[in-house]
Amino acid sequence: MSINQSIFIEKSVGKNGINQPFDVEIIKKQLNAQMPVSYSRLMINGTCDSNTIDTIIDFQKKVLGFRQPDGRVDPNGKTLLALNDPVSSVKWNKNSNQVINGQWTGDSSRWSQTKKLQSLNPVFRVKVQNVLDALTQRGFQPKIFFGWRSVSVQQELFNKGRSKVRFSFHNAQNTDGTPNAYAADIIDKRWGWEKKAEDNGFWSALGEEAKKQGLVWGGDWTSFKDVAHIQGRQNSELAKTKQESGL
Ligand SMILES: [Zn+2]
After folding, report:
1. How remote is the CA of residue 147 from the centroid of ligand 1, in Å?
2. Which residues form the Peptidase M15C domain (predicted)?
3. Distance from the alpha carbon of residue 146 to the mean position of ligand 1, in angstroms
4. Domain locations along the chain
5. Ligand 1 centroid to 206 CA: how many Å?
6. Which of 50, 54, 92, 120 is deepest in the core (most CB within 10 A)?
7. 10 Å Cβ neighbour count for 51?
8. Beta-bridge partner residues of 186
9. Which residue, 154, 121, 152, 139, is CA-closest to 233?
10. How much distance in Å is there from the Cα of 187 to the middle of ligand 1?
């Protein structure tokens, strides 16, 4: 489900489009690859249904900033160009986040997987999704335990000796206070932190896949091994991240 940077279509797809089945299928696949993780994927077939058109409209509004989206992708149009651009995925995520931006309260370790993903920085989130997909392909059952968490939860963990910092990459936020975490703790839902996770090679697989995405893995730390922890920034960027968070 990765973004293909050179899709093309013969005829228009979408509202009032020609909708040749093979063109429709190409556009649906690309929309799926670009869309925010919280969206449900379009069924891949040659039918341009109302879901497909709504998704094109949402893309045109949130990525291209169209005030009057036409819901159609033309062979040489702006919408197709944007669909070929990997940056669109980041924009789409970000602008959907602002709309969803509802309740970021309660125990964040109990949020749904979707909400935990939403609590991550958009660029980091795409990489975490790739790690989760790769682990699943390797037969693991990965899930996010903590994405974002509040500074007060961080303080509790610090007091209990479960974290070595009072502010961590898990606490990063946007200036409006919405979560923008640069860290995630990933476990296999069958084993958690039990010894079985290590025996079955889960932590080393997590480290491998995280590093393939250019992420930092806590299992590499010598002073404070944190095998479930992956992050999108270097430890040296912590102060900068705190400042950006307005904390
Ligand atoms: Zn962590």
Report:
1. 8
2. 183-231
3. 7
4. 13-98, 105-244
5. 13
6. 120
7. 14
8. 144
9. 121
10. 11
